[in-house]
UniProtKB/TrEMBL annotation:
Name by which UniProt lists this protein: 2-aminoethylphosphonate transport system permease protein
A GO term from the CC aspect: plasma membrane
Localization annotation: Cell inner membrane; Cell membrane
UniProt keywords, alphabetically: Cell inner membrane, Cell membrane, Membrane, Transmembrane, Transmembrane helix, Transport
Domain ABC transmembrane type-1: 65-253
Organism: Rhizobium hainanense
Amino acid sequence: MLIWSKSGRFVVWAFVVPLFAIVYGLPIAVIALASISGQWNDILPSKLTLVHYANAFRSDSFDSLKASIITGAIASIAALISGTWAALALRKMKPLRKRALDLIFFVPSAVPSVSIGLGLLVAFSQPPLLLNGTRMIVLIAHFVLISAFTYGNVSAGLARLPIECEQIAESLGARPFYRLRRVTLPLLMPYLVAAFSLSFAMSMGELGATVMVYPPGWVTLPVNIFALSDRGAIFDAATLTMILGAATLIVLWGLSRLSNRSVLR
């Protein structure tokens, strides 16, 4: 849009497309090839196989996929509820107080995830809140890491809503809960879906905090991928990486269709 001449656009496309292919396409292509490789001693694999995918769905890797999806769904729902609640509550506060509370909500996004994991590990290692070795501490870690992004998305959506709709509903006698349920939340639906999608995608790929707190029997897929890579099982790790990406994209695609339907309505 900023380049008006055809020759200039051609030069830009000629530069951007190869750069995009190298930076984004090449790593994905290598991982995809590695996931179906039986042997790779040259530039390209010398033997292709689907045995890695078959093994992935027969071993503990499938349990890791379920753990990632369940953790991502629960943490994202909790973050969506709390983030929406906080954004609605802070919307009518005075600017100075709102900025201060905004800063508090965004602190987790500025702290390295490993630090979050270490903090939870220390905080919940003794009674009365002894959560180390439980699934709950993994859920809390994911919730803490994604809640700031959920709050930010919902707050941005609220700032774009036409306030006249709520004022008209109020003038017609609609009570606060009715306005929230029938006016505000339906108008916010695309932003809520976007916030949940971002939270879920971040949770599915989270490693730093999870590797610090995960208990035996609740190993998420990124932790499993890291462990396989550390042991030198690159082909198996690549297979799980493709499965993780595919599962995340399927969920995001479904949420995108839900968001489009809500907009059309």
